[in-house]
Design a protein that fits this description.
Chain lengths: 304, 263, 441
Amino acid sequence: MALREASAPRVANRGKLFRGQRTAYLYVLPALILVVGIIYAGIGYNGYISTTNWNGIGPDQSFIGFDNYVRVFGDPVFWTAVRNIAVFAAITIVVQMAIGLTMALLLSGNIKLGNVYKVVMFLPVVIAPAATSVAFRQLLTPDGQVNETLRFFGLDVLTHAWTSDPQVALLALAAINVWSWTGFSFILYQAALSQIDGDLIEAAQLDGASLWRTVRSIIIPQLSGTHATLVLIGIIGSLKTFDIVYLTTGGGPGGSTEFLTTYIYKQAINFFDAGYAAALSVVLLVLSVSLTLAQMRATKYGKD
Amino acid sequence: MFGRTTRKQRILFQVLATIIVIPFAYPLIAIVGISFDGAGAVENFTAVITKTPFLRFLLNSAIISAGTIAIVFVFTMTAAYAFAKLRFRGRTILFNVLLVGLVLPAIALIVPMFSIVNQLGLFNTYLAVIIPLSAVTIPFTLLLARNYLLGVPDEILEAARIDGANTFVTLWRVVLPLAKPIVAVVIVWTFLQSWNEFFLPLLFLQSVDMQAVTQVPVYFTSEYGSDVPKIFASLVLICLPIVIAYLSLQKFFERGLTAGAVK
Amino acid sequence: MNLLSRKGTRTTTLIAAVAAVALTLGACSGGAPEAEDGPVTLEVWGWNPDEASAPGYFDEFEAENPDINVNYRFIQYSDYVNATRLAATTKDGPDVFGLQAGVTPTQFAPLAEDLAPYMEKALGGNWKDQIQATDQFDVDGKQVAIPWFMVTTGFMWANQTVVDELGLEVPTTLDELITFNEAARAAGKQGLVAGAKDGWQNLDMFQIIANQIEPGLFYEAINGESDFNATEMVEAFEVWKELFDSGAVQEGALGATAYPDANDARLKGEAALIVFGSSQYRDSTNARMEQYAEVYGDAAIADTTFMPYDFPLVVDGGEVGSLSGGPDVGWAVSAQSSKKDAAATLVQWLVTSETGTGLLGAALRPPAFLGSDIDLSDVKTPEQVTAIEGFLERGESIVGPRELTNASVKEALIQALSSVAAGLSTPKEAVATVQAAIDAA
């Protein structure tokens, strides 16, 4: 409908292209209506529902002020979820960056089958998390292929009931995430590496710098923008993680892999507590936005 | 990248790369391998296709993907064009308003989404998935497309304007042809998102003839017991379209994922 | 990405306007009412009966009520509540839907039609005396649903074929159970399997333990009539933990679901024992086992024999044998339905008609409608008949209702059970959190 408004009023050209065009709003409007109508209306509605004790179904809802928020901060499950997300984020971000960078560096040399390796690293990124989770849930059962492989190599001590042992379940989820997303870090580093000036490295090597030193002192610092991006995306991604948890451990055992997303889902769907789920959603949103802003400020990201 | 390397080093790199890639290859091989187990590949894959409404699910996912791509493409390109090339009051703030969607987990909208879908009477319709999915996808595609269009020289658009083209004609005749690479990226990215979406169909598409491919493993499990090889055959099948798309459009996938993140 | 820039005020107004438009667009919707004459088609949603057995009921109903057609939609219980809660608020949703006794009747009460007037018209003023446990679907004087059939829990099932194959005896004590599991494991099978990822399975098992310590105390404590943080409940949690630590349940139990994981293991003959209740009576019939054989594509399943047993004594000085129970499925009519009379007719037929109760009886499900029997003629062996008859008789004197009615108490108990089993909290901490939830309720 925005596109019908073809005859735009002409405005005097002062060197700026199409300055002051009112039609500009019409171009922005469809996206704006959709995003505001769903996301902002949703956030506002969350804010409203979070002050009620609505069960999500019936017509009864009464105003209970900030009780739900008080409950959030006194809820041990909430704090467990926050801790789980922090641990999960720390592990996945570091491991994915380390492996991604190493692979990008290695494949920048003359590696045989380099393109095959690249495809293998990247395929998990495009596969549906729903499929990945179902597959890993099976691979990680006590008699699953992972343990069988470990036993085959005589590594019986390393076998675990991966998704049902609270000591390792979160690690198992992190491993699934690493499998799924390392290809992303890898591709990003590969793109960034191709931008680095080859002369710099050439010069360093002429000066007699070792390979390791070249990587550490020249290449890694040159990639600081990519590091920052990956940390930011990793943090947001950890807060958003849902599918792989919901479909493997479901947050258990005993809340040892509960995430805010799975807890919100449970409260809204299983426990009939839409008011509390809304309050948790608002907290999650505040957490996402403020962590993003803090991280962007810390690295001057987007200051351009 | 490393300039000169010795033969020893090259061998070391080859070995190291191989060691790293094995754990990534292993699950892929295992998934395909398990799907051939039990009754055998032919029997397993035939069972998924004939005994489950797999083809129906495939069609549903295709419809959802097509609908989402259409909305996201049109809304993204028009808005990106305005944000990159047109001047108007509140441009920056409006852009930032749209970007908040980047950090918002869709689950945080579960309570309002129930009410919106309910109010609009969209339960169990494709739109119940397409609309929210478009809303959460657009912030990212918009960021990609705007950044790309910023790089299109103003002079070209200026020339069109002097020739008497209005903003729409300029968008259609000049900008879009120049923006083909990013258009491809937007489409590929949106396809990836909508094909792989699990949560929204889970909530809003309940009848068997409406469900999406990502529900197949769960459907298969609950209907036929956990016949593992057949479930894995279904996993292979639901991943196949996206894997084929990736293998044939490798560049666009990789660029789609990196374009937004790398300046 | 520059999220950090300054704000404009006009844009805020614009956003508000756009939001208003978006919301108004949303408000204009709704369906036209349908006329109730001519043949009507009812949308019926449930998780029970399953897809295989549903036609048995609804085809018969259509045959006896030619002017009403039924369109039954089966949804797995894991998705069922979620799907129904949304759909039942709209006219496009179900006309009739199943409700699980316990937490859901309270939550769904606003969405359901009061069925008391319909039942009174059909069965007379004393209709409540003719159907068991109607009170469990009575929410503040509104009859939200009518109980369809009854369940009993508190025992376990053995895949007798597997047990005999292994040359073992069904265990009656904790020690025997552990030895049994080890022996089964050594033969490449599993002993007792629990789907301890599922809260309901844990609740069923915990009730068994609590009732071995002191029959019925659990229900008093849950209702706030006695202390939940009493020593008996602490002990119950200790025993509960021991089941997981001592190998009384399989490794990885906390990651397994009752359906399909544990259930499949017992049906496919990979596991010997499972804690299920009266819903599995029908797994002793030829008809049901043939169905399974078809679903799993393994003809051998049709010859498997399942036998009910008491759960082994896992408490020192305790006593086995207490059963809990109550209505399972109840049928509700949506308040949004435009075909309420036809919908109520279907509910009455399912619950009280001779054909309806006869079909339940044939599926070995005790109908909630009094005076109707279950039919054991298709049961495979005389031993099974005797065993099931024994449990049926004992099911008439239960120690308490299986289903908890308060959502937050149930949530707290489920969390506590999972947490203790995983070793993340102690039995004392667990009873304290449950007690706190009971106090708050």
